[in-house]
């Protein structure tokens, strides 16, 4: 029989798959002997069974009874008892944290009887009725699916009637009346009484948490965070402790280090006389955690001790939720805390400096995605800016855009390509689509741990929260700041590092991390301008990248077609060029020469003249690039795209000729061109006359490129330089194709070497693997190749049969929505399909030539997940755009360390 229920004393932090993150960490804290209110976790396996079958597993009820009795015995109280009742919370908790995305119900066990027992036991009648009305409100909204506004409107109406503004000003009598109103809402909306049976409440709430895995907002969040949809959530049932039992009680959230800077200290928010949800929701403004020291020194000291203990135990920044119930501290949750990208780098190195972790471990505490975030531009410090408000710096970055107030406006702006900033009083999980669409988020209420802040940090989105000067009227579409009124027409800029809000457009500048990456440590430190945090960050990035470079096996090259790009690539640490696409060198003012090649007869003087002119220009291109890349490999891909890309557009020519004919006669040159364009028109150009096929179809074309390259290399060798060109043949499918081009290439190399009297034996010839047939016959192709580079863009296109220029914008959103894939296979390698073809190509190639050099130069070469795959499959190098080179270096280091651990 499958076991579905685990007491907190049974698990540990390694069991996130089964118990969810929250459940596993509650078990770990219980194991550490920390004051955790007793409870149990219903496993993710139970949720998966529920989602599969549509009913809870039959044996669950019995297991819950046993687990509940165990908790009751520990507490010496019974669920929903008429005197001194045990109350429990029911919370979701998936393997990966999904803040606020799924449901929570507190105060389960209260009913018309036990509310009196709670009043008696707590000696606080008001608290008891407030707890009961909260239960009906949460239960009504999340379990019974009643519109939440019905409850909050009833509460507001009551406050108005009593002439009070704060909930806390309502009396026990008021709240007792509110309970009746709430019960009437349930009856009116659902035609049923609010369930009085505590166990029924518990079971219904559990099922609601299971169901909440599949809400729309949970789906959106998972898609964005690349969390698989089939994991399911665990359900944590835990003894309630109360932060809202009057003075001496309260609840808070804290971090062992600052989650935006990484600095050690006391970071967190505390709310007196409140329940946990009040802090996270950002409804009331919180006190800094340090205020607890004055309010309740014992609890504060105990909490500091636990924070330190947890950080030592987890060897990482922890994020903690706690409650103080009448002077007694309880730990409700801990986890390795989400943090900003900058904090991730700083904390990793701080922990190394404190000897809590090794450099290898530190490398796995940061990601390529975080490094990318740090490379984002920031506001230009020297620009004149009009500061209009200040809030908390909740998530870094610089966002500029027009003001939007809700999801619809944000999504509409994004669809029109207009940048926008989502401005809200506070956010809640329903605002997720707007947060996704906006450049940044600005709220008027809530602290660094509010929903907006936590979610924005997780997404790497700029966020400023708690800008209290803002009076937001979403309905009227206005933001009032002092006597200034802004509307949706206005642009604002928010700085996620300082919390500043500016009016109007603000120019942005490079990040100091990018300055470091491009210019080295000294340049980076100079760009930090003495700022301590930035200096620490640059040093941390430097140490981690240096370590990554020292452990990685994968070499990192760049895709570059110009001397400038090549230089940038070198600055970013590229060790060579993995793909120089030569077709760009045939466009612009050189296009007429290509037209002449196409229009002229094979073997004609005209064609030869066009070839000669092109060769001369190409040689100049290669000279410059090889010079920049002196001593480093430079893979030159022979011309690849379909011919029609070099010819005028068919439709405009047709129109031109037709119009001219109608007006008395077309230019014969145009007519001739039209006939040629028609001849070369293809229904599926990506599968047509391109790559090696073009090289064979148009004799002399590849030859001129190879000669230009060899001549350029020869000239540099004669100057005492060390050019390392590699000739790469695109879209090869058969060994014969490669043999033909290779023979031609070898003859040219020998000819130029003899002619110029230099050694060109280092010039190699290889092929791109872009077709399934090439991968599946790589053992043959390897006889004719010195190297292979997987062109995973075309390989994805040909393995899936997707037209790469068409599909992403058309039906991929639906494919992602329908879970056919989580991310576009053009972005991150489709490991099962395309990946298997790559792996097979590697195996076959190496079966012929054990040491053949293998790389990848498709877009995937710069994608973190794909880089891990390429390491594991045994490639020698990845090649990506210059800007992604640092990310590739870091990820190549990370995967090398991971592989070391799993050896
Ligand atoms: C590829 O196909 O992966 C590749 C790098 O070539 P291109 O994108 O130029 O077709
Ligand atoms: Mg290609």
Automatic annotation (TrEMBL):
Pfam entry (one): PEP-utilizers
Binding-site list for substrate: 581, 637, 770, 791-794
Catalytic activity: pyruvate + phosphate + ATP = phosphoenolpyruvate + AMP + diphosphate + H(+)
Residues in Pyruvate phosphate dikinase AMP/ATP-binding domain copies: 54-285, 294-344
EC number annotated for this UniProt entry: 2.7.9.1
Domain PEP-utilising enzyme mobile: 419-499
Active-site residues, Swiss-Prot/TrEMBL: 451, 857
MF annotations from Gene Ontology: ATP binding; kinase activity; metal ion binding; pyruvate, phosphate dikinase activity
Keyword Ribosomal protein recorded: no
UniProt domain PEP-utilising enzyme C-terminal: residue ranges: 540-894
InterPro entries assigned: ATP_grasp_subdomain_1 (IPR013815), PEP-util_enz_mobile_dom (IPR008279), PEP_util_AS (IPR018274), PEP_util_C (IPR000121), Phosphohistidine_dom_sf (IPR036637), PPDK_AMP/ATP-bd (IPR002192), Pyruvate_phosphate_dikinase (IPR010121), Pyrv/PenolPyrv_kinase-like_dom (IPR015813)
EC top class, as a word: transferase
Family: Belongs to the PEP-utilizing enzyme family.
Protein name: Pyruvate, phosphate dikinase
UniProt source species: Schaalia canis
